[in-house]
Amino acid sequence: MTGMEQLMAMVDGRLPAAPISETVGLVDFGGEEGAIHVSLDPEHRHYNPLGTVHGGVLATMLDTVAGCSVHSTLAVGEGYTSLDLTVKFLRAVTVDSGRITATGRVLQRGRRTALAEAQVHDAAGRLVAHATSSCMIFS
């Protein structure tokens, strides 16, 4: 299967979803080739000691949509791995933020590397976090 076919098979239940989705509580995974989105309803279990959603939860969402955006471009027999993830946290997230949605898209895809960006917005449409990710593509 191509990368996009693999991702859609996970959405349809023909392949098992990534366990991190259940661990964190990711919902509404979808998209198209080169652009993927996922959402999360913040809960107290996501909080850090300061009383806001832990940055690691936001980073997980950003890494998921950036990486899966690259995954969606893979040909049959190709794989990928993340080389880096650079995250900027812009606004605190709490349960009062409502459903947050991460969107990722491929900015550049070459033979061996890809560059993707990702954003998380709260229910009011405010940008709460931004990331870029480089991925290595291999056979």
Descriptive overview:
The chain is α+β, with helices and mostly antiparallel strands and 139 residues long. It is built from 3 helices and 6 strands, in the order ααββαββββ. It has a single domain, classed as Thiol Ester Dehydrase, Chain A (Roll). It has helices at 3-12, 19-24, 55-71, and strands at 26-32, 35-40, 79-89, 100-109, 113-121, 127-138. It has a 6-stranded antiparallel beta sheet with strand order 1-2-4-5-6-3. A hairpin with a 3-residue loop joins strand 4 and strand 5. The longest helix has 17 residues, at 55-71. The two termini are 14 Å apart. The model has no long low-confidence stretch (mean pLDDT 98).
Index terms:
139 residues; alpha+beta; Thiol Ester Dehydrase, Chain A; 6 strands; globular
Short description:
With 139 residues, this protein is of the alpha+beta class. It has helices at residues 3-12, 19-24, 55-71, and strands spanning 26-32, 35-40, 79-89, 100-109, 113-121, 127-138.
The level of helicity is 10-25%
Q: How would you name the oligomeric state of the polypeptide chains in this document? A: single chain
Spatially, the strands of the biggest sheet line up as 1-2-4-5-6-3
Task: Domain count, please report it.
Answer: 1
Q: Which structural class do the helices and strands define? A: alpha+beta
Number of strands: 6
The CATH topology, please?
Thiol Ester Dehydrase, Chain A
Radius of gyration: 15 Å
CATH level 4 superfamily: Hotdog Thioesterase
Text of the CATH class:
Alpha Beta
Q: Give the overall shape.
A: globular
Secondary-structure element string = HHEEHEEEE
The fraction of residues assigned to DSSP E strands is: 35-45%
